[in-house]
Design brief:
Layout: E1 2-7, H1 12-23, E2 28-32, H2 39-49, E3 55-57, H3 63-72, E4 74-80, H4 87-92, H5 94-114, E5 119-125, H6 149-167, E6 172-178, E7 180-182, H7 201-210, E8 216-219, E9 231-232, E10 234-236, H8 237-253, E11 256-262, E12 268-269, H9 270-281, E13 287-290, E14 299-300, H10 305-311, H11 319-332
Parallel strand pairs: 1-2, 1-4, 2-3, 4-5, 5-6, 6-11, 7-10, 8-13, 9-14
Antiparallel strand pairs: 9-12
Length: 339
Amino acid sequence: MNRLLVTGGAGYIGSHTVLKLLENDFDIIVLDNLSNSSKESLNRVSKLTKKDIPFVKCDIRDYEALAEVFRKNVITAVIHFAGLKSVSASVSNPLEYYQNNVYGSLQLFRAMGNFDVKNIVFSSSATVYGDPDKLPLDESMPAGKPTNPYGMSKLMIENILDDIYRSDKSWNIVKLRYFNPVGAHHSGEIGEDPLGIPNNLMPYICQTATGEREELKVFGSDYDTLDGSGVRDFIHVCDLAEGHICALERCYKNNGNDVYNLGTGKGTSVIELIKTFEKVNKVKLNYKITERRDGDVASCFADVKKIKSELGWFAKRDINDMCKDAWRWQSLNPKGYRT
């Protein structure tokens, strides 16, 4: 049976994409080492879709374990999410990020090549652009100046994929540069569940709203933005997940090596996001302005014309939806998947 392999499929973005894949009748197998995710996310996806999800607990750095997955399944394509994703943690522990993200991806691509699986959708990041000279960011702009090791690890993997394609044009590669995924599935069954202290803004907002965190820190108030706080292109995780379906269809249709931004095309400041969250959910957040964080840029938002014209994808959900859905998930699951 032909199968789609989803690495890191139990994670935040992975689980939402797995749900969309099952809703679109893809036959999948999920691989995850559960280092920063929970198998419960897949149990809930299975419940929502009424479909079983074949699962293998495996680290992508383990080539033999990967090869066994390819031996036992007729895999036709891979969606590659697996990897560490904290900007701040990558600054303090760069070697761990290169080991996990780059070396792990090398083992995965090696296994794919050895088993003649040449269709891949790769989970990249807008951090590959670095500190932008102009906005919005479009795919023709040069990458190559990431401000942190996380972004550099994603750029290195993109470069590896470019080299693979140059050496063998029968590969079908789609690289998706994510902007800032937030929100949760509207059911409240699956959402973002960071282990320990959150690295991303929205779960920190949600945990502050529940009282689990005493206060929310806003990193920087002196950026060259309307209110001094950082500006980001926040995108609903379900819109992001739907983008992978379009990318996969592109992968199956023609050989090529494509890159697309996945964002809304609109910048929202951290303060604006906080105020919107308070307004739509009728809660008050205790937040404090503090110093800038290493590795952050002032503003970052996408030009999304390319993906809309070539793949027909565009974001359908707005910042209000993102805040409502994130709070619904957190309210129903105050301790995440551990409730």
